[in-house]
Amino acid sequence: MLQYPQEEPDFGVALSTSLVLFGFDGNDLQVLLAKSKRAPYTGALFLPSRYLNENDELMLSARKMFKQLFGYEDPTMIEQLQAFGKVFRHPGGRVINVAHYALVRKSDFQASDWDENDMQWVPFSEVPDLAFDHNEIVQYAKERLKRRVKRRPVGFRLLPDEFTLGQLQTLYETALGKKFDKRNFRKKLFKTTLLIDLDKKADGKAEGQHKGSQLFTFNKEKYQKMKIQGYDFLF
């Protein structure tokens, strides 16, 4: 039988949660970061984060923070990563961080409650040294994204309603950190029957869309089915 230890443990441990938010601007994947105003990390960037009270539920807390940043709540968007609990990860004491991540559209960002933290988007491949162990959290989220990209359609969360094949390829190349042959990439895409040709051309005004490029949208019914079932879209 399991028994409690004879000496009562020290419960002086705090909990926090952070959000790794990946957005796409039409040309590049980016990560949303905030600027710290507290020592010893004054001026350093860090992931949007909050401490948890004893009655706070992890996922609900992450969703609440997401809603503060984007103005809406979608329970299917946020995915829990893991707990980051190195003893000295936080200068203020023992704080265990249970991180989450989500794929978002940058155009939805509002941050009305976070303006004082000077929030900013940073290119996916150019994340600087962050406060705490947040680089480790970002790297973990990147690896999770790579796995998702290979097995699930992810563009619906990141791309505008009307996008070009060039934008979609850029998204996959950035997420996976590799270049693809244009012809082979598009051949695999069209085999999925995931795309709908809108029979219209880009006017070149939207970020990342070249004038005259064909515009597409996602087959929402097919997209949802593939999201649930998964698919073999390996490169």
Q: What do these coordinates show?
A:
- The chain is α+β, with helices and mostly antiparallel strands.
- The protein folds into 2 domains: 14-151, Nucleoside Triphosphate Pyrophosphohydrolase, CATH 3.90.79.10; 155-229, Arc Repressor Mutant, subunit A.
- The chain has helices at residues 58-70, 134-151, 155-158, 165-176, 182-191, 220-229, and strands at residues 14-24, 29-35, 45-46, 49-52, 79-84, 95-105, 120-123, 195-201, 214-218.
- Strands 1, 2, 3, 4, 5, 6 and 7 form a 7-stranded mixed beta sheet that branches.
- A hairpin with a 4-residue loop joins β1 and β2 (29-35).
Core attributes:
alpha+beta, 9 strands, Arc Repressor Mutant, subunit A, Nucleoside Triphosphate Pyrophosphohydrolase, 235 residues, 29% helix
What can be said about this structure in brief?
With 235 residues, the chain is of the alpha+beta class. The protein has helices at residues 58-70, 134-151, 155-158, 165-176, 182-191, 220-229, and strands at residues 14-24, 29-35, 45-46, 49-52, 79-84, 95-105, 120-123, 195-201, 214-218.
